[in-house]
Every structure is written in structure tokens, then in C-alpha cells.
Write a structure and sequence with these properties.
The structure holds two protein chains of two kinds.
Chain A: H1 2-25, E1 54-60, H2 69-82, E2 86-92, H3 98-107, E3 114-118, H4 119-127, E4 131-132, H5 135-138, H6 155-158, E5 162-163, E6 171-172, E7 175-187, H7 188-194, H8 202-216, H9 227-242, H10 244-251, H11 263-279, H12 291-297, E8 303-307, H13 310-314, E9 324-328, E10 341-352, H14 358-368, H15 371-381, H16 400-405, E11 407-409, H17 415-418, H18 420-435, H19 441-457
Parallel strand pairs in A: 1-2, 1-3, 10-11
Antiparallel strand pairs in A: 3-10, 4-10, 5-6, 7-8, 7-9, 7-10
Chain B: H1 2-41, E1 44-45, E2 55-56, H2 60-67, H3 69-101, H4 108-116, H5 123-134, H6 140-147, H7 161-189, H8 193-201, H9 206-217, H10 219-234, H11 238-243, H12 255-263, H13 274-298
Antiparallel strand pairs in B: 1-2
Helix pairs in contact in B: 2-13, 3-4, 3-7, 3-10, 3-12, 4-7, 10-13, 12-13
Classes of the chains: A alpha/beta, B mainly alpha.
Chain lengths: 458, 306
């Protein structure tokens, strides 16, 4: 007991001593400074306004080290240097888990200031109220302050970020920073050697395929396995026969539309089936990704329908003799006579609901869409730019007339964005049966109408 | 003395509780709470974003699930994997286990390792490996078939509905066989040698030894193995996702790949139906639960003691 009292006493003494010491160190009032001899009054110091520190939270679907990711980090640093007070923080979520991570963050009230997206995903984000309208930002001046920002983009590309059925109404919801076309890739060396011409119509394409298969003994086209990819050539054919809007409206069950009553759908189905059954790898039945690409890259087939990100995917696997080139999907004689349409997909940015610093993020996205940044991206990443006046990568130069004069439509014609469930449940399975010959074109159209009615009936 | 013992026991129980608490808390927060929450989410039409905007739809997602023809296909595929795959898997796993449990068998370590090896590789990588083996033009299998003059048998394996499903089942069985083999070997090793010796003295043949001694005494291990297979076959995902992504024409979807397709939007398939996907997950939970319960009930017998 005594021992405890002693210990307590010691503690009290220690505390008192410490208080005393602290009191000695910091006088309650500072002693006045001795007056300085009078001198010339110094210029009153102009207080610099305190710089506001802004952290921009950018969420990207790339993984670290992927594609042009290191370049994006550099752009962030350049932007910080040009705009003191701004800090760009990146989240590299990786393709596979990006949407889940974004959803988890947003559900946790931790929305990033801007998120990467493709135009197709953007349509869903807009519809579900995840993305906010960006019209007012597009009306602002660009990064250099010389032009209305929205006017710096190709109209046909920007329009893919416009969503009629967005949760906040019909608005622009996304800003493009990269662009991919859909085309037909071929081996330029093979074409030059044999004097093959680039086809401008589907008839010429069929004639070319006959020639290739007879001369070179290889199938004309390589296959792929994504249901979405398989359906693309058929959609391209339909679009060239009736225009995108008719196909889109029919798939979305707009009143007065019908698969059976529009003869071009049957005509397109016949052409699509012929293309697949006669000119794809014999016995092809769809499931070949990524081996189909690998086979094409090693001269197994003459051509492949693919978006223009293909070159980067074949970089390490293509044969030395392969000189990769691409041409736009040809038109159909006597087909659609409206404004020329071309298939494209943009990658870009949107401002998520609940973002804390959307203006700062927009400022950085403006920086990303300057001609300087876009040209660097084109040179380093071989990525086409949505910004007017930036040259296309050499391999894509044949797409320039389309970009300048045509109307951009999504790869899936908008069905891949606005009628995804219909596509998965009705369209893709039936397209498979058409393309492999399980259904005649007539049966296909008939069943398409039946399943379509059943789907919308439910 | 006795009061000391009682307080010691109490203290012991207290300590057990202290040590168990973290595990119980983890179980509650990482399993029970999310599982319970899934039931709640399954009753909403929800995109996966901003739950405040979700609409309560009651059991509508479940009604949709019963009307969904592709979910029906996926469920049938799960059943095929479970039963057809299960018969294949346990036939081979048992065969390998019996052969490789024999210590006189030369090279048993090599074979055990070789059969177990696929299991240490990621199932997605396994799926991609098989895509290249089955590629119709330059794949290993078709090249082999053509080299021996069997050109007619060189089919587009993964492009045909029936063959694609058959290969998916085969690859899943091939992938898991090592695991069940090891499990059964452990069971066989646990059977006392004296029982075999006694049977041999009674003149039992090798075949009789298997049917009258090994197989009955493996019953408990087999029951655990079968229940584990039933559960894992209902949750099959990685191999299917990598090999076919549910194609061609939705023919090889399992409930989990289909659930993924519906719930998680991807660049290729931006479907925003987290509520519906969760309803499928809840159905899957009940299915696995009922199957497990049934099997435990059917296989309930007194434990075998040697």
C-alpha cells in the first residue's frame, strides 16, 4: 500500500515539474522587441492569394503498364506543371474488374471526378444515372481558349456520346479521346503480290474472295467467337441495305417496324449466310477467339473483320511476311442511299454522379484533347483521334473520308448499347444458327420475328 | 479441489470464446451479412449503381428467372456437369486412387503429380490452353487426327453446340480429377492393412477386395467428395468463361456465367441487371443447399470405426 502511495506521489511531482518546465519554455506573453532604429519604410508586402489545392481523381479501365497508360501518367504530370495547384490522382482498375470497382466506389459515396468508358458502356451509364450530362462543358472554350470545345471534335464521333434515354434526359454524356473504326484487315504483301484490288462494294468483295480462295488456297476470312463479333458483318450488311435507323428501330420494337415486312432484312440474311458459309474457315462455327486472330496473323486466312485495335493485339504474334493493312467495310450496290454511315467506337471520359471536382477533371480532359496530346497518342499508341485536324495513323488513312463526311454509328448500330438484352436473348443465338447454316435465311427472319415478339411481349 | 476445477473449466470456456470471437465476427461480416443482403438486393430492380434509385419489385426477378429460357439452358448444363461429369470424374478418380494407393506401383509419385498438376494452374489459363488444343485449323487435336488420316473427325469442336458442351465437361473433369484422386487415396491409406490381410486369408480376389473392402470403407470419404463435387459443379465458372464465354449461341452457359453476364456490365455486354443477377445467385444458393441436404440425408449412416 505504502509503495503505491509513494508511486503516486512521485507521479504528482513529475507532473508538476513537467508543467513548470513547459511554463518556463513558452512565456504567456512575449517580451516586446526592442524598437528598431527608424529606417526607410519597407514596401508593404503584397500577400499572394492562397493557391487552392485541387486533387483530380481519375478512374481508368487500363492496368498499370497497359497500352498508353505510362503516357497518361506523363500527361498528368505535364498538366500539373502547367496548372499549379492541381494534382492528378489515377486509379488503374484494369478491364476485368473496373465496372465493379467503380460501382463499389460510387455506392460508397466515393465517386471519382471522371471515369474512362467506351461509348457502348456510356449509354448504360447514362441510362442508369451513373453519368452526368456534359453539354455545358462542351459549350466552354477548349484548353487553349481559342475554340468552342465541342467544335474541336468530329461531329460523327461526338454524337456517339449523345444519349436520348439518359436518366437526366437527352444530352451528351461523354467526351471522346480515342477512336476505333471497324474494317477488314488484310495482308498488304499478299494483295500486292497478286495484284488484288481493295473492294469498294460487297460484290467486289465476294469476287475477291473467290479469287483468293482459288489462287492462294486459303480461306478468305478468319472467324471469331464473340457472339457480338459474329453478328457484326450481318449488321453491317443490313445497315448498307436499309440504313442504321431502320435496323435500330426494328430491334427496339418501334411501332410500324417489322423483320418480316422489310425485305432488305431477308436479302441481308442471304448475303450474310453466303459470306460465312462460303468464305470463312471451312467448318467454322464461331468459337475461335483468340485463335482465329492468331491464325490470320500467321497467314492462315486472307482477311478478318475487326476493329482497328487489332494491330496492337497482333504485335507479338504476327508472321514476318504479314504487312497489316485495313480497308473500310464496302458498300452494297443499290443499297442505302442516305448519308454515308461508318462503324466506329470511341473511348473517352464521363463525369460520374457525385463527383467532387468535375470542373477540374474537365480541365484535365480538355488538356488530354489538345492537338498536342492527341498527336502524341496517335504516334505512340497508333490510336485515331476524335479531334479534327489530328492526322490518322498511317494504317487508318483510308478511313479519313468517312470520318470527315459520314455519320458515325456504334459498332452494333446502337443495339449493343440500347438493346443489349434483346441481342443476348434473341438476336445472337439466331444469328449463329443462320451463319452456320442451321437455319435458312427465310427461317431465320421468321424465327427472329417470333422470338422478338415473345421477348417484347414479356 | 473441485471448485478449482470448475472455475478452471469456466476460464477455459471464456478463453475459447475469446479466441473464437474474431472468427465469428469475420464469418458474420464477410459471409452472413453479404448473404443476407443478397436476399434483399434480389428483390430490387437495381443496376448495381446508386441503390437509392433501385425499385422494389418483390419476387419479380425470381418470376423472370423461371421464364428465362437461357437460364433454363444454364441450369440443365449445370446438371449435366454434375451428373455426367460426376460419373466420369469419380470413375477415373477412384480408378487412379486405387492404382496409385498401391505402394508397390512404380512411378506412383510421378503419376500422382501429373494427374494433380492441372489443379495448380488457374482455370482461366486452362481454358485458354484447351482453346488452342481444340482450334479447328491448327489445333493439336485436329492436326493429330488429320495426320492419321481421320480428316472427317477433325471438327470445329468448340463451335458446335453439343461438342462444345461435351468438351467443357471433359475439361472440367480433367481439371478436378487430381483433387478427388488425392482425397480418395487418403481415404484408402486410412483403411487398416489388417482388413485386407484378413480378406486375402479368406481367399478374396483383387476385384473382391475392391468391392467388399475398399469401396464400402471409403463410403464416408466418398460422401464428402461427392457433396463437394456437387457444390463445385454448381459453381463452375472459370473454365467455361475462358473456353466459350457461354457460347456458341448460349449453349454452354452455366448458372454462374449467365449470372455474371446479367449482373456485371462489360465493354462487350453492357447489361446492368444486378438485381436479377443476384436473384439467380439466391436461386443457386437454395439449389446447392437443397442438394447438400438431400445428399446428407440419403448418406446418413453411422460412422465407420476401424
Amino acid at each position: 500500500m505504502n509503495h503505491k502511495i509513494k508511486l503516486l506521489g512521485l507521479l504528482v511531482v513529475l507532473v508538476l515539474f513537467a508543467s513548470l518546465a513547459a511554463g518556463c519554455g513558452t512565456p504567456a506573453t512575449e517580451a516586446p522587441e526592442p524598437e528598431a532604429p527608424e529606417a526607410e519604410a519597407p514596401e508593404p508586402e503584397v500577400e499572394e492569394p492562397e493557391m487552392e489545392e485541387v486533387e483530380i481523381d481519375m478512374f481508368h479501365f487500363f492496368s498499370e503498364g497497359e497500352a498508353i497508360q505510362p503516357m497518361m501518367v506523363e500527361w498528368g504530370e505535364e498538366f500539373e506543371a502547367e496548372n499549379p495547384g492541381y494534382t492528378v490522382n489515377w486509379t488503374w482498375a484494369g478491364q476485368e474488374g473496373a465496372v465493379q470497382l467503380l460501382s463499389a466506389r460510387m455506392n460508397d459515396d466515393d465517386a471519382p471526378d471522371a471515369s474512362f468508358t467506351s461509348d457502348v458502356l456510356l449509354a448504360g451509364f447514362a441510362r442508369e444515372g451513373v453519368a452526368t450530362p456534359v453539354d455545358s462543358y462542351l459549350d466552354e472554350m477548349d484548353y487553349e481558349g481559342s475554340t468552342r470545345w465541342g467544335d474541336t471534335f468530329y461531329e460523327g464521333v461526338l454524337s456517339n456520346g449523345y444519349n436520348e434515354d439518359g436518366a437526366a434526359g437527352a444530352h451528351f454524356y461523354g467526351i471522346p479521346t480515342g477512336l476505333h473504326f471497324s474494317g477488314i484487315f488484310f495482308n498488304q504483301a499478299q494483295f500486292e503480290e497478286n495484284g488484288y484490288e481493295i473492294p469498294e462494294t460487297f460484290d467486289e468483295l465476294i469476287a475477291l474472295c473467290d479469287e483468293i480462295q482459288a489462287n492462294d488456297g486459303i480461306p478468305c476470312f478468319s472467324g471469331d467467337n464473340y457472339a457480338n463479333y459474329n453478328a457484326r458483318p450481318l449488321r453491317y450488311i443490313w445497315r448498307r441495305l436499309v440504313g442504321n435507323q431502320v435496323m435500330y428501330d426494328t430491334a427496339l420494337n418501334v411501332e410500324g417496324t417489322s423483320w418480316v415486312d422489310t425485305p432488305e432484312f431477308l436479302e441481308g440474311a442471304k448475303l450474310g449466310q453466303k459470306l460465312f458459309m462460303d468464305y470463312y474457315v471451312p467448318g467454322w462455327q464461331g468459337n475461335e477467339w483468340p485463335t482465329g486472330q492468331a491464325d490470320f496473323a500467321n497467314l492462315g486466312e486472307a482477311m478478318i473483320f475487326m476493329p482497328t485495335w487489332l494491330p496492337s493485339e497482333l504485335l507479338d504474334i504476327k508472321a514476318d511476311e504479314m504487312v497489316l493493312d485495313v480497308f473500310p467495310v464496302p458498300n452494297i450496290d443499290g443499297g442505302w442511299e442516305g448519308a454515308p454511315e461508318y462503324e466506329m467506337k470511341f473511348n473517352g471520359w464521363f463525369i460520374p454522379e457525385g463527383a467532387e471536382n468535375p470542373e477540374a477533371a474537365i480541365q484535365f480532359i480538355k488538356f488530354l484533347t489538345t492537338k498536342k496530346s492527341m498527336e502524341e497518342q496517335m504516334l505512340e499508341g497508333e490510336i485515331a483521334s476524335p479531334v479534327i485536324g489530328v492526322a490518322l495513323p498511317t494504317v487508318l488513312e483510308s478511313f479519313l473520308p468517312q470520318l470527315e463526311e459520314g455519320v458515325g454509328v456504334r459498332f452494333g448500330g446502337g443495339l449493343d448499347a440500347d438493346a443489349v438484352e434483346w441481342e443476348e436473348a434473341v438476336f445472337h443465338p439466331l444469328v449463329f444458327d443462320l451463319l452456320v447454316g442451321n437455319l435458312t435465311p427465310e427461317e431465320f427472319i421468321q424465327q427472329l420475328q417470333e422470338f422478338h415478339d415473345e421477348f417484347y411481349g414479356n | 479441489m473441485s471448485s478449482n476445477t470448475t472455475s478452471g473449466r469456466k476460464r477455459g470456456k471464456g478463453i475459447i470464446f475469446v479466441f473464437l470471437t474474431p472468427a465469428i465476427l469475420l464469418y458474420v461480416f464477410l459471409f452472413l451479412y453479404p448473404a443476407g443482403d443478397a436476399f434483399r438486393v434480389s428483390m430490387y430492380d437495381w443496376s448495381g449503381f446508386n441503390f437509392d434509385k433501385a425499385t422494389y419489385v418483390g419476387l419479380e426477378n425470381f418470376r423472370d428467372a423461371f421464364d428465362d429460357r437461357w437460364l433454363g439452358v444454364a441450369f440443365t448444363n449445370n446438371m449435366l456437369i454434375m451428373f455426367a461429369g460426376g460419373i466420369l470424374l469419380f470413375t477415373f478418380a477412384l480408378f487412379f486412387a486405387v492404382v496409385l494407393a498401391n505402394r508397390k506401383f512404380k512411378g506412383r509419385t510421378f503419376f500422382k503429380t501429373a494427374i494433380f498438376l492441372p489443379l495448380i494452374i488457374n482455370p482461366v489459363a486452362i481454358g485458354y490452353l484447351w482453346i488452342f488444343i481444340l482450334q479447328p485449323r491448327f489445333g493439336l487435336l485436329n492436326t493429330l487426327l488429320r495426320s492419321v488420316g481421320l480428316d472427317d473427325l477433325a471438327l470445329p469442336w468448340l463451335g458446335d453446340r453439343t461438342w462444345a458442351l461435351a468438351w467443357v465437361i471433359f475439361v472440367i473433369v480433367w481439371y478436378f480429377i487430381g483433387f478427388y484422386m488425392v482425397l480418395l487415396i487418403a481415404g484408402i491409406d486410412g483403411i487398416p492393412k489388417e482388413i485386407y490381410d484378413a480378406a486375402k486369408v479368406d481367399g478374396a480376389s483383387g476385384w473382391q477386395l475392391f468391392w467388399r473392402v475398399t469401396f464400402p470403407l471409403l463410403r464416408d470419404v466418398l460422401a464428402v467428395a461427392i457433396i463437394y463435387w456437387m457444390i463445385s459443379s454448381m459453381q463452375t465458372f472459370g473454365v467455361v468463361w475462358a473456353m466459350t464465354q457461354g457460347g456458341p449461341a448460349n449453349a454452354t452457359h452455366t448458372m454462374t456465367t449467365y449470372l455474371m453476364f446479367q449482373a456485371i456490365p462489360t465493354v462487350g455486354s453492357p447489361i446492368f441487371r444486378m438485381g436479377y443477377g443476384t436473384a439467380i445467385a439466391v436461386l443457386l444458393f437454395f439449389l446447392v443447399f437443397i442438394i447438400s441436404l438431400l445428399f446428407f440425408r440419403l448418406s446418413r449412416r453411422e460412422a465407420i470405426e476401424y
